[in-house]
Amino acid sequence: MRKFFQEIKADLKFKTAGPGQKLSEPSRYGGTLRVPKEKPKAEAAPKPRQAPTDEAQMAAAAALARLELKPKGKAPSSQEAVKNQVRKELMAEAAASEKELSVEEKDLASPDKEGAAAPSVSGVYFICPLTGAVVRKNEKEKHLREAIESYFSVDPVAASIMEIHTFNKDREKVRAGVETMAKYLDNICLHPEEEKYQKIKLQNKVFQERISCLEGIHRFFQAIGFETKTLPVPGQETTEEYYVLKEEMLTKLEALKDYKEQLLSSEPVRAQLDRQLCVFKPSPEAARFELPNDFYNLTVEELKREQRLRTEAVEKASMLRTRAMREKEEQREMRKYNYTLVRVRFPDGYILQGTFYAREPVSALYNFVREALRDDWLPFELLGPGGLKLTDENLAFNECGLVPSALLTLAWDAAVMADIEASGEEQPASPLKPELLSRVQTLS
Questions:
Q1: How do residues 55-103 score in pLDDT, each as one tens digit?
Q2: Which percentage of the chain shows pLDDT scores above 90?
Q3: Contact, 252 vs 204, CB < 8 A?
Q4: By the 8 A CB rule, do 342 and 397 touch?
Q5: How far apart are CA 12 and CA 32, in angstroms?
């Protein structure tokens, strides 16, 4: 083999022409040799090879040790085979190290890890109308139940009515059940002398379908003076369960009428969305938002799936979408968010922040800003991205594209501000209320 390469080298040396010379004889190893146009530059001396690192030496030693521990089969035919096997082992070691590194990088990138960007708000919160407590979104219903339960010791009738209207989500069933219950009470009040109206059979089909299925209804019966009794069925030898009005309630028919009106006119107990009003100093970070999962109607997994499907749809889309398709896409986008975090930047740079329902009208934002002003009569406009004026206050935030977050700019009425300046009156440093400025924060 060595002799073969020496022959090739000699032949190439013989066939190579010097400057200004031509080659007339083709090379027997693959075509005519070409004359270089210019004298090739001398190649730089190769850099001395660096010694392998400690880590590389340890990995090689470990690979060779594993080879020695493996069952001995047929001996390798040459030293090159051993080198190839060691090379495979080292490559496996490197791949394993890269895999471990990628896992560590993924952990560091996780939002749950320390050092991740802090959210703009810690979550969505509500104010309980019964206790005044501020609770997080996922604790809202539990707190309402506990508050209503504790209210039974104060007013059992009102508490049971709250249960009926608050915890039965099917509003049509609630309406049908409440109206049926009101007819029972009307019959008692209109015919107090007739005993048949003072008893309600629990197994009655109408009672089962319209009333018994409602949460809180049985506690309402007990609160207004009914008690359960087992009575014989007329003309039969069997017995049935009944609600029977206590005799003393026949002397309190006006109270029964009041209970009926309360039942008909009541509304569900709704916790009020806490705006989480914040005032920030001027900051270049005003347009950066980090929102918690509370702001999204979809779960994190559903959001990832939605994004993947949208990406695939864009890649596959080779035709123009119709207007109906675009509207359907917009509607799906609007339903994705339940809440929005809005910041309003004032001309002096201060920033007012609040949380809103995504389906609330923009008028709620205007009221929110007015309530924060020292002089709430000052006219102003709110400008969206690109300087677009939010003139239609009846539109919802999601209809204006202000979800799940938005940075708006407040602009004063120029004519009014000119009149104020012409009057010569000294103006405060900030238009915001002093109590808000006293707890101003730095936006991080």
A1: 555 555 555 555 554 444 444 445 555 455 545 654 555 555 444 434 3
A2: 54
A3: no
A4: yes
A5: 11
What's the whole-number mean pLDDT along residues 392-399? 92
pLDDT score for 51: 55
pLDDT 10s digits, 310-339:
566 655 554 555 666 555 555 555 567 889
Specify which residues 242 forms β-bridges with: 201, 229
The answer on pLDDT for 437 being more than 60 is yes
Q: What is the 3-state secondary structure (H, E, C) of the chain?
A: CHHHHHHHHHHHHHHCCCCCCCCCCCECCCECCCCCCCCCCCCCCCCCCCCCCHHHHHHHHHHHHHHHHCCCCCCCCCHHHHHHHHHHHHHHHHHHHHHHHHHHHHHHHCCCCCCCCCCCCCCCEEECCCCCCEEEHHHHHHHHHHHHHHHCCCCHHHHHHHHHHHHCCCHHHHHHHHHHHHHHHHHHHHCCCCHHHHEEECCCHHHHHHHCCCCCHHHHHHHCCEEEEEEECCCCCCEEEEEEECHHHHHCHHHHHHHHHHHHHCCCCCCEECCCCEEECCCCCCCCCCCCHHHECCCHHHHHHHHHHHHHHHHHCCCCCCHHHHHHHHHHHHHCECEEEEEEECCCCCEEEEEEECCCECHHHHHHHHHHECCCCCCEEEECHHHCECCCCCCECCCCCCCCEEEEEEEECHHHHHHHHHHCCCCCCCCECHHHHCCCECCC
CB 240 within 8 A of CB 230: yes
Q: Is the pTM of this model over 0.90?
A: no
